[in-house]
Amino acid sequence: MQIALDAMGGDHAPGPIVTGAVQAVAADPELRVVLVGDQAQIAPSLPGGQPSDRLEIFHCSQAVGMDESPVEALRKKPDNSIGRCWQLLSEKKVEAIVSAGNTGAMVAGGLRLRRFLKNVRRPGIAAVMPTLRGPSVIIDVGANVSPKPQHLFQYGVMGEIFAKHVLKKDKPTIGLMNVGSEEAKGHDLAKETQTLFKASSLGTQFIGNVEGRDLHRGAVDVVVTDGFVGNVSLKLSEGVFEFIMKTVFKELQTVLNVERDTALKALHGLVDRYDYSSHGGAPLLGIDGICIICHGSSGDKAIKNALAVAASYARLKLNERIVQELEATLPVGMPEE
Asked: How far apart are the C-alpha atoms of 316 and 318, rounded to whole Å?
């Protein structure tokens, strides 16, 4: 199990990124990590300052900044760490890639190679969301802001496979994010996507439209949406969670007159349960290979978990399952592009 890790990606790279890789290989004896980036910056964070048989360095001289234009940076910096990760994946030298770097550059790198799974026209980023009925998945959260109906349908199929095999949901239900639950609501994109779902073998699992307030209620196991709405929903959820946690902490201290350490202890389990670092990262589904995109502020814990998640998806043969189900569920007459 060999995974390429963008050692230069993220707000705090390369230190915590490399440390996370060290922890990951210590926890999984079958895992090998290729650290992609500037060797002079990576080496000091390795045990003894040297690579080992399961921690290899693939040197490259450039990195894409978090605030850089993705396409322009990939073009002007041919020896960047994100591009080299994609190169290793396309050459089948690794089974997965992981990065906490520029999300746009990660997606653009995959689009530029066009190494998509059969019947997938555009990849989508899937994110696990906490709900009152257990975890659900929302797709897409940022890869495709202008999808076509067939793209959204493919996201639903990939999300259903993810929910079934990763979240262990039996016959996952699918909903389409819309401005209302009524069938006639929404723009043409939503209406045409509904038609595709109803005409497919997933028609019995597709419940129709869901609203933003249904996201954390657990109304469905898979929420399908475009990358713009999905990204806003994800960031809004993160912001609301942070606001609520800080508000509850303040109330525990002031209204209930609880000691600071006691208040922290009371919230610790809840924060750990929903902390993004516990999930590692979000998969870019539809790529021929495993790609995990991590939060820009990821520390060593998040990177360790992201590498473990990447390895588990490869072992589950998630992509093979996606190809099989897409082949079986394509509605008759669905346009290719």
From this structure: 5
pLDDT digits 0-9 by tens, 173-229: 999 999 998 888 889 999 999 999 999 989 899 999 999 999 999 999 999 999 999
- pLDDT at position 329, please? 84
The phi, psi pair for 133, rounded to 5°, reads -115, 25
**Strands 96-99 and 32-37, bridge-based pairing:** unpaired
Written as one letter, the residue type at 120 is V
pLDDT of residue 135: 92
**320 vs 57, 76, 117, 324, 326, CA distance in Å?**
29, 35, 9, 6, 10
As a whole number of angstroms, the distance between CA 46 and CA 36 comes to 13
What are 316's two structure tokens? Answer: 């589950």
pLDDT above 70 as % of the chain: 91
What residue ranges of the chain have pLDDT lower than 50?
none
Contact between 63 and 101 (Cβ < 8 Å):
yes
Question: Which residues have CB under 8 Å from 327's CB, separation 6+?
Answer: 118, 119
CA distances from 235 to 20, 141, 274 (A): 24, 9, 14
Quote the pLDDT of residue 323: 92
Domains, the chain: 2-117+286-317 (3.40.718.10), 124-275 (3.40.718.10)
